[in-house]
Amino acid sequence: MRSRRGWGPAASALMTMTGDEMIALSKKHTLFEWAAQAAVDPIPVARARGIHFWTPEGKRFIDFNSQLMCVNIGHGDARVIRAIQEQAATLAYANPFMATEPRARLGVKLAEIAPGDIDVFFFTSGGSDANENAIKLARLATGRHKILARYRSYHGATAGSITLTGDPRRWTSEPGLAGVVHVLDPYHGIERGWDSAAEALSMLDEVIQLEGPHTIAAFILEPVTGTNGVLVPPDGYLQGVRELCTKHGILMICDEVMSGFGRTGEWFAVNHWNVVPDLLTMAKGLTSAYVQLGAVGMRRAIADHFKDTVFQGGLTYNSHPLACAAALATIQVYEEDRLIDNARRMGGVMKELMAGLQARHPSVGAARSIGLFGIVELVRDRATRRPMAPFNGTSDEMKAISRFFRDEGLYTFVRWNTFFANPPLSITELELREAFGIIDRGLEITDRAVA
Ligand SMILES: Cc1ncc(COP(=O)(O)O)c(C=O)c1O
Which neighbouring-strand residues pair with 187? Predict the structure, then answer.
């Protein structure tokens, strides 16, 4: 056994590879996502605890992206691990035609925390298939076929969900599912900025008229858009979408795969605007990714449609007992540790820290956050707001700041001209300040490119 800093003997019993070996064999025999394989440069990860993870050689990283915006409760929580172990020993799997206690209890618990009268759930393996099933439910329940989605969105990588996705990840999968129509968002990028809620709603209303309201089953949207920019909608926008959908009998599907489970400082982002969608999809924070699980929540009226009509849908891992047990334990952690309150409180601290960055660094063109869901947009010029990297592209400066974060032990997502701030909701003020200290120094790199 190679010696590693920070390892106890028990923790290392299963671990025999160096970081280099992990990388070489993973690259040789497995495919990495969203990348040309020659260009991938993975961080080898051996273990994780709280807001940190470590390489086999003991290099520590602050996980400032909760991995993929999903490990909301933090890593290695003993309560969730115990629940998974106990469930695995009792009943690791039962097929979806069976009823099990974790399935039953999770349905009850989600009905308690989901907004409004959403109290029936269909469990999936993750977010993409939650969205697939949401649009299937919407089409079956309304008898209509079109789905509206937004351009600045990501809804998943499976055939239907990638068609719903508006961002460039969709392009190579076209032509996709028939009947999906994309609409513009209130946000138009760092240079053009924001529409008011009234302007955005008027554009949406026009598209609905032009498409024919009676042909539209649903409008799917991320209430706070995730990878496409942590876009917090102007007040009144979500309420307006709700009204337009209700007026035309269009179902409102909110994709809370990323924004749900405390990320924004509420159980679900829609709670900030008191909006109840007809269907709500979730994954990621539902189990904090300890085991994979997604779900579609629906209002009673939609569930009732399938009382005497067959729901034509299924998945081998639907209502997987191990995943349901992990979700129940995870939700208990949010409650016991008051993590959503902490996200709100630390979100306030993060807002101040982000405002400080904006005041000190000319390359910070915009800094947005809600709860512990944050993003910084970098620009070359404060006056023209020309982004530090083009739409769907990168630049030497963005690569350099990304390298700096990695060298300094701060893991976060760097995309186009942006980087994210999405730590686990368990983060302390001290830890938050440590991360922002690294960011502060990193921004000196991009400041040098400012005209
Ligand atoms: C908003 C949103 N929807 C759907 C998905 C897809 O979820 P999954 O990768 O679990 O299939 C993601 C993943 O990042 C997401 O952020």
Answer: 194
Q: Is 156 in the pocket of ligand 1 (CB under 6 A)?
A: yes
Which strands, in side-by-side order, build the sheet including 418-421?
364-370, 373-378, 418-421, 414-415
Pocket probe for ligand 1: among 70, 132, 152, 155, the residue whose CB has the most ligand atoms within 8 Å is 155
Judge contact between 363 and 190, C-beta under 8 A. no
444 CA to centre of ligand 1 in angstroms: 33
Residue 226: half-sphere exposure toward Cβ, Cα within 13 Å: 24
pTM of the model: 0.96
Strand pairing class (60-63; 410-411): parallel
Is 221 in contact with 200 (CB distance < 8 Å)? no
Query: Which two structure tokens, joined as six digits, stand for 14?
Result: 């299963």
Of the pLDDT bands very low, low, confident and very high (cuts 50, 70, 90), residue 182 is very high
- Tell me the C-alpha distance between 357 and 376, whole Å: 9
- Compute, in angstroms, the gap from residue 257 CA to the centroid of ligand 1: 6
Ligand 1 atom at minimum distance from 156 CA = 6
Give me the pLDDT at residue 339, please: 98
> How high is the mean pLDDT of the chain?
96
SS3 34: coil
Tell me the best of 258, 286, 375 to mutate to test the pocket of ligand 1, counting ligand atoms within 8 Å of each CB and taking the most. 258
Residue 223 in contact with ligand 1 by CB distance below 6 A: no
Q: Return the beta strands (E) in 28-178 as ranges.
A: 47-49, 52-54, 60-63, 118-124, 146-150
Q: What separation in Å is there between the alpha carbon of 421 and the centre of ligand 1?
A: 17
Structure tokens that stand for 377 in this block: 């947009």
